[in-house]
Amino acid sequence: MSTQHLWLRCEKKEFERRSALTPTTAKKLIDAGFQISVERDEQRIFDDVEFEAVGCMLVDNSSWPTAPTDALIIGLKELPASQEPLRHTHIQFAHCYKRQAGWSSVLARFYKGGGTLYDLEFLTDATGRRVAAFGYHAGFAGAAAGALALAARRSGEKLGRLEPYENETAMIEGVKNTLGGSAKGVKALVIGALGRCGRGAVDLFRKIGLSEDDIVKWDMAETAKGGPFQEILDVDIFVNCIYLSSFIPPFLGKDQIIAAGQNRRLSVVVDVSCDTTNPFNPIPIYSINTTFSEPTVPVDLGQDLPLLSVISIDHLPTLLPREASEQFSNDLLPSLLELPRRKTTRVWTDAEKLFHEKQKEAIEAEGL
């Protein structure tokens, strides 16, 4: 069997410091017989020398288009928009299987180049559960960003640029200090509280000082009756952590917010799920993703009503880049070790089958 070649590309999304591979997981792959190429990247949380020290070959930044075609290109976030055909096999979050904006043109690039996509979001075990996900740290970081936005609002300011934290402890202490030492008295509602993402949000709220009674935890049972939900307006921070796959009634609507008038308590909505361009978005009160440099967007309520801010950053875990990367890459490792047998290993055969199904839909949509 020939050596399996994995090529870690750099991330082009602004502020994205996470990595699909870490020096720890790269060494385990090399020990298993893999060849690992790593693009030099000053933005990545791990220094180039950390990868070099465990036996990885360093290559030029953004050089993956010239990589051998048998090299599998691995990254995290989607590639920059382009019409260039993709001839390699890519492992990444492509954000194109749920008909997000531009979905068909992304998949058309693979069709034109003969490449293959293994979407990290859809690598699942035998029970249908994702083999690796950033959910916990997304929820944890999203709740932290929500608390920071609330503190800014209480000071009459807008939340400024967010910077990554060295670790969870630094994040917790930073948020608590911004809130004046504790978040006691703040009330939050988390929808999707039983999932990875929701557990992360709940844990952050606990660690910054919210009392248990002030953390409202909802999941499928509480939302089964269908929205919109008045209860969302009665908390300071609402965090949406659900995984959306089909239409559900909106959780919150502009008319509902306007009707609440001056008595609304809700100040911050954190849409961790970030289904901004999904036609089934259950929080249809905003239309753009926010960024680390501009983390909030105001909801246009059209009246002289209290400000309501939305955080819709689609890579929140990069606020904790080292810890999030280590957890994700370690969870992904068993599946990566099966790559030499990907034509017969279920996690990879299922992912390839789904790719071909979605690509067929894209070919029809693009008229190819």
Automatic annotation (TrEMBL):
Instruction: Give all cystine bridges in this chain.
Output: 197-241
Q: Has the keyword Endoplasmic reticulum been applied to this entry? A: no
Q: Where is the Alanine dehydrogenase/pyridine nucleotide transhydrogenase NAD(H)-binding domain?
A: 166-312
SMART domains in alphabetical order? AlaDh_PNT_C, AlaDh_PNT_N
Domain Alanine dehydrogenase/pyridine nucleotide transhydrogenase N-terminal positions: 7-141
- Pfam families the record matches: AlaDh_PNT_N
Active site, per annotation: 77, 95
Sorted alphabetically, the keyword list is:
Amino-acid biosynthesis, Disulfide bond, Lysine biosynthesis, NAD, Oxidoreductase
Catalysed reaction(s) here are: L-saccharopine + NAD(+) + H2O = L-lysine + 2-oxoglutarate + NADH + H(+)
A GO term from the CC aspect: cytoplasm
Coiled coil ranges: none
- Which BP terms in the Gene Ontology apply to this protein? lysine biosynthetic process via aminoadipic acid
What EC designation does it have? 1.5.1.7
Q: Give the record's pathway.
A: Amino-acid biosynthesis; L-lysine biosynthesis via AAA pathway; L-lysine from L-alpha-aminoadipate (fungal route): step 3/3
Task: Give residues annotated as binding NAD(+).
Answer: 129, 195-196, 219, 223, 243, 272, 313-316
Q: Which InterPro entries match?
A: AASS, AlaDH/PNT_N, AlaDH/PNT_NAD(H)-bd, Lys1, NAD(P)-bd_dom_sf
Single GO MF annotation: saccharopine dehydrogenase (NAD+, L-lysine-forming) activity
- Subunit structure, per the record? Monomer.
Tell me its family. Belongs to the AlaDH/PNT family.
Q: What is this protein called?
A: Saccharopine dehydrogenase [NAD(+), L-lysine-forming]
**What is the scientific name of the source organism?**
Suillus discolor
